[in-house]
Amino acid sequence: MSSSLVARSAFNRNVATALARRSLRPLAVQARGAADYAYVPGGPIYRGTVNDPTPFPPPSKTHGSYHWAFERLLSAGLVPLTVAAFATSGTNYPILDGLLGISLVMHSHIGFDSILVDYLHPRKFPRLGPLFTWALRATTAGVLVGVYQFNTNDIGLTELIVKAWHA
């Protein structure tokens, strides 16, 4: 009985050794292949990821401090325009209708564009970011056409605000 146990354990040892050699061989090949690459302290540096510094945009009057000042001026200007729309009737002041319509659409466009710049920038989303940016531009153009049509062929924004307020 003891001879069969010895034979069985020797057989199991030989099979286990052969399986271990066979299964560890790819790891040894990978280890040799990995040693061929030079070690970079701190890990590898990839292009186009968070390891790259942020590129500075070229100076432009439509972005940066001028852009920020324009956004603040537009936001502050909406307050008196809205109050003026409540105080007057729209049929007598079509310029107020036009200013209010353009200002509201521009304010909304700048806000949605800021969301797209912050969360869907082209570096992280190379296809989705530009697609949504162009969709926003097309939507803004469509809304501007709609506001123009509403102001010229219908009652206008200020008259709409007055009617909605008194309804």
Taking pLDDT < 50 over at least 5 consecutive residues as the criterion, the unreliable ranges are: 27-32
Output the helix-strand order.
Answer: HHHHH
What value does the Rg take, in angstroms?
34 Å
SS element count, helices: 5
Q: State the distance separating the first and last CA atoms.
A: 103 Å
- Main sheet? none
Name the average pLDDT: 78
Instruction: Report the principal-axis shape.
Output: elongated
Approximate strand percentage: under 5%
Beta strands, count: 0
Fraction of helical residues: over 70%
Q: Structural class from helices and strands?
A: mainly alpha
Supply the key terms.
167 residues; mainly alpha
What does this structure look like?
The chain is mostly helical and 167 residues long. The protein is 71% helix and 0% strand.
Summarize the model shown.
The protein is mostly helical and 167 residues long. Helices cover 71% and strands 0% of the residues.
